[in-house]
Specification:
The protein is of the alpha/beta class and 769 residues long. It folds into 4 domains: 7-179, Rossmann fold (3-Layer(aba) Sandwich), CATH 3.40.50; 198-225 and 242-396, N-(1-d-carboxylethyl)-l-norvaline Dehydrogenase, domain 2; 438-584 and 631-676, 2-enoyl-CoA Hydratase, Chain A, domain 1 (Alpha-Beta Complex); 592-627 and 678-769, no CATH class.
């Protein structure tokens, strides 16, 4: 079996440096080479300035060493995987491979990150041994955040090499790996760019505005919020132009080449240097003025930027009430208005094209659907969309005469000998998971009846004696239903299971407590109700900590407020690499009252060496973490902040998170798990409180915080120092939980807190009043 423990990246441009960064995120030592060491250093420096950040933490970059082709090619012998990411010119890539071959170790894998040059052509002239370890590995930009990795073997590539890259890409890099054929632009760009070209045709005809198109090609049809033109600005219009030109040059038939002819508008933008976000303007432009930043929209006919216009598309507004995506798409696609016309001319044509080219570019329709999900952020891939809208309905609506081969085969399979037609679908069910350890929650619900369910959460039997609590409210906000199911999950696991996992397969683990409920009760001055809500949540998270079975929490994505408090009280954590975790309650005028303040104090004090008597520096860590509402930029960053423990584990592949959490829970069970004893917590008393309050006062006097921030800071200082205690002593967890609850209730009675909550609920932003 081939193992990958080190890597080298050739080329420190935008993609090369970011690929090196993500390899370092996975813990690999990486050699980053360019023409010379200075050029490589400049490439790495640019990568550290990018937003979003390609690195999990600043320290991650220390795993990258630098060098130049002029002096350091012999160091390639130390690398298990060598990735070429230089300029997209065949002659330059071929020349570089001829220089690489003498220096690579005999069993090192060599691959190219080209987005369109034939993989076999780049390695022309290399030895049989080299070709055995040669393939394409096409990362999508930005490599840290976009899951897709297209792996393109040649006829000479060893199956063991393909399997090694597939396994490493999936498990260690967190990638969704798809095998593609060695054809122009492979799978995702071939299909995705075809759809973009159809959209640009309609824009050029003046039928729709940029704002209208983005409204019709965004979340309402299962696409990212950046939709079409914002996505192009982010990716770079120059990159779009290059990929289109490559397809226009390399495709075989004139008809297909013309489908990728560069639009005049794209050419004009590239010539002006208006290539998107990196240039400050593209289809949209950011303009800073005395009143702040505003976003302007390009008017293609005049090439002048204008004020943005809100689109008025009645059917689109109506469709927002249809929560089921397939039903919503079908309704819009088969309508009789401008939205339907747009979707049939763009999405419909893209589905037909995907069916036409799939046998040429991919090994299965599953690979095509996965590629578009992972590379372009589609909620449903092309063949899922065929099935959602209806195969015959797509054909009728788009008036298709020349049927793609896959459609002809489908029609023949679904038409019986007597001429009757069954419902035509490319699949009998949904897109199947790649493996048994992927998306196990969905598989478990198909295999076993749900143990218990309410609107906020469910109890799901994961098999092998492991029970799961799955959150499924909007943004997985924690309300009474969720708290009830956490408590029920512990009781059920103690009775009938060996371990409990808390997690879900949503984008966000939990955005925090249900603030709507808090606001409503506070406005009605129902203080007993709020007190009961807080007590119930405290009881639920403490129940997780002292359950008689091991509890593993599996956060991913947003893990804020109450969601963070659930994580803090796990026996162990299996976190997705992309976990954005923090106690952000101060932003809405509150403090963490679900055990979060108590637990961060316990963890901070736990770092205090016995030789150091001054508790203040360690308490201040917890104070700053809560007071500044710090949120981790990754799971690794959460460890740096102290929100995760050094022993907590990280899963790179989000789709494998719950399988890893289940495995960890079983490990704890088999090791002979015993519930921990409740600790006594050391608190500093008056001296620590006075020091913390002095810091709050100085910040207030300096104008850095508002009066209300100062009030919250004093309440937080009181909890972290142990209340009104005159000196250092030890207190129980329940004592600190009572202080939390008292502070939370008093802040709910503050008008400025209610203003903050209302503002956040309305805008999604923080009000500093």
């Amino acid at each position: 079996m081939i193992h990958i423990h080190s890597a080298a990246v050739l080329g420190a441009g935008t993609m090369g440096a970011q690929i090196a960064a993500h390899l370092a995120n996975a813990g690999l030592p990486v050699l980053l080479l360019d023409l010379d060491r200075d050029t490589a250093a400049e490439g790495l420096r640019r990568a550290t300035k990018l937003s979003p950040d390609p690195f999990f933490t600043r320290d991650t970059a220390r795993l990258i060493s630098l060098g130049g082709f002029d002096t350091d090619l012999p160091r390639l012998a130390e690398s298990d995987w060598i990735i070429e990411a230089v300029i997209e010119r065949l002659d330059i890539k071929q020349a570089l491979m001829s220089r690489v071959e003498p220096h690579r170790s005999p069993e090192s894998i060599v691959s190219s990150n080209t987005s369109g040059i034939p993989i076999a052509d780049i390695a022309a002239g290399r030895s049989d041994t080299f070709l055995k370890y040669w393939l394409g590995t096409h990362f999508f930009n930005p490599p840290r955040y976009l899951p897709l990795l297209e792996v393109i073997p040649t006829s000479d590539t060893s199956p063991g090499v393909v399997e090694a890259i597939r396994r490493f890409g999936s498990h260690s890099l967190g990638k969704g790996v798809v095998l593609a054929k060695d054809t122009p632009s492979f799978i995702a760009n071939r299909i995705g760019l075809y759809g973009v070209m159809r959209v640009l045709e309609l824009l050029a005809d003046g039928q729709f505005t940029i704002e209208e198109i983005d409204a019709m090609s965004g979340p309402v049809v299962g696409r990212p919020k950046s939709a079409t033109f914002r996505t192009m600005d982010i990716a770079g219009i120059d990159i779009l132009s290059h990929v289109a030109s490559t397809l226009n040059e390399r495709l075989e038939t004139e008809e297909e080449r013309s489908a990728f002819a560069r639009p005049e508008l794209v050419g004009a933008l590239v010539e002006r240097g208006w290539v998107g976000e990196k240039a400050g303007q593209g289809f949209y432009k950011k303009e800073r003025g005395p009143d702040g930043t505003r976003i302007l929209t390009l008017e293609p006919a005049t090439m002048v930027y204008r004020e943005r216009r809100s689109p008025r598309l009645t059917s689109l507004d109506a469709a927002q009430t249809i929560h089921d995506l397939p039903e919503r798409l079908r309704t819009l696609f088969l309508g009789e208005d401008r939205v339907a016309e747009f979707l049939r001319a763009t999405l419909g044509q893209t589905l037909i094209y995907a069916a036409r080219v799939t046998p040429e570019i991919a090994h299965s329709i599953n690979d095509v659907d996965r590629a578009m999900r992972w590379g372009y952020g589609w909620a449903l891939g092309p063949f899922e969309l065929w099935d959602a809208i209806g195969v015959d309905d797509v054909l009728d609506a788009c008036a298709v005469d020349d049927l793609p081969e896959l459609v002809r085969e489908l029609k023949s399979q679904t038409t019986s000998t007597d001429g009757t037609v069954s419902a035509r679908r490319f699949r009998a069910g949904s897109l199947p998971p790649l493996a048994t350890d992927v998306s196990i929650l969905a598989q478990a619900k198909e295999a076993h009846p749900v143990v218990k369910r309410n609107p906020g959460a469910s109890l799901v039997d994961l098999g092998d004696g492991v029970l799961a609590v799955e959150f499924h409210s909007k943004m997985n906000a924690i309300g009474g239903d969720t708290v009830e199911m956490l408590t029920a999950g512990v009781a059920e696991a103690e009775r009938n299971f060996e371990a409990l996992v808390v997690g879900n397969e949503s984008a966000a683990f939990s955005a925090g407590a249900n603030l709507v409920l808090v606001l409503l009760e506070a406005q009605e001055e129902n203080w007993d109700e709020i007190d009961l809500m807080v007590q119930s949540f405290q009881s639920a998270v403490i129940g997780l900590r002292y359950a008689q079975v091991p509890v593993v929490v599996a956060p991913a994505g947003l893990t804020l407020g109450g969601g963070c408090e659930v994580v803090l009280h796990a026996d162990s954590v299996q976190a997705a690499a992309e976990t954005y975790m923090g106690q952000v309650e101060v932003g809405v005028g509150l403090i963490p009252a679900g055990g979060g303040t108590k637990e961060l104090l316990v963890r901070s004090i736990g770092q205090q060496p016995s030789t150091i008597k001054d508790q203040l520096p360690f308490v201040r860590q917890a104070f700053d973490l809560i007071g500044f509402g710090k949120v981790s930029t990754s799971a690794l960053d959460a460890k740096r902040l102290g929100l995760l423990r050094p022993s907590d584990r990280i899963t790179m592949n989000r789709d494998r998170l719950l399988a890893d959490a289940k495995g960890l829970a079983l490990e704890l069970t088999h090791a002979g798990y015993h519930a921990p004893l409740a600790p006594m917590v050391s608190v500093g008393g008056d001296s620590v409180r006075a020091a913390l309050e002095l810091g709050v006062h100085i910040a207030w006097r300096g104008g850095h915080i508002s009066d209300h921030d100062a009030l919250i800071g004093r309440k937080l200082a009181r909890i972290l120092s142990g209340g009104e205690l005159p000196h250092h002593t030890s207190v129980s967890e329940q004592y600190l939980l009572d202080l939390e609850r008292e502070a939370f209730l008093s802040l709910c009675g503050e008008p400025k807190t209610l203003e903050r909550i209302a503002y956040t609920l309305k805008t999604g932003k923080t009000l500093r009043n």
